[in-house]
Amino acid sequence: MTHQVLPEFDQPDIAAALDALTPEDLDQLPFGVIGFDQETLVCKYNAEESRMAGLAPERVLAAPLFTAVAPCMNNFMVAQRFDDAIAQGSRLDVFVDYVFTLRMRPSKVRLRLLAAPDMSTRYVLVSRRG
């Protein structure tokens, strides 16, 4: 039996590592993972994000990320960056200091936005740790 090394929030090239993880592995990560497809439908949602956001996976999976799940990210700081990267055919890997305000008291987080032309799943990673 081998022990899988799980990726860290700030690890370079984390997208490939995330793509290789099972849903059970994603649930072991100490940061939130929201994966979504080209139509912005959520296809990956881990236990940490579910717990911190207070949203059950059944409510989130297959729902549009920026309109139904997290409309507080439907702005130039988050959603527009994904749109711009896709339109330009460029890679997106940026960290954003952010404040979540929907469905909860204001909560400071650090986001990592990941997308690339060759990625079928795009990611928003959420770190709530100092």
How would you describe what is shown here?
The protein has one domain: PAS domain (Beta-Lactamase). A hairpin with a 6-residue loop joins strand 3 and strand 4. The protein contains six helices and five strands, in the order H-H-E-E-H-H-H-H-E-E-E. By secondary structure, the protein is of the alpha+beta class.
Put simply, the count of helices is 6
Biggest β-sheet description: 5 strands, antiparallel
CATH superfamily: PAS domain
| Termini Cα gap | 34 Å
**How many discrete structural domains?**
1
User: What would the average pLDDT be, to the nearest integer?
Assistant: 93
Strands ordered across the widest β-sheet: 2-1-5-4-3
Classified by CATH, the class is Alpha Beta
Return the string of H and E elements: HHEEHHHHEEE
Task: Give a topology summary.
Layout: H1 14-20, H2 23-26, E1 32-36, E2 42-45, H3 47-53, H4 57-60, H5 65-69, H6 79-88, E3 92-100, E4 107-115, E5 122-127
Task: Describe the structure using short key phrases.
single chain; 130 residues; alpha+beta; Beta-Lactamase; five-stranded antiparallel β-sheet; 6 helices; 5 strands
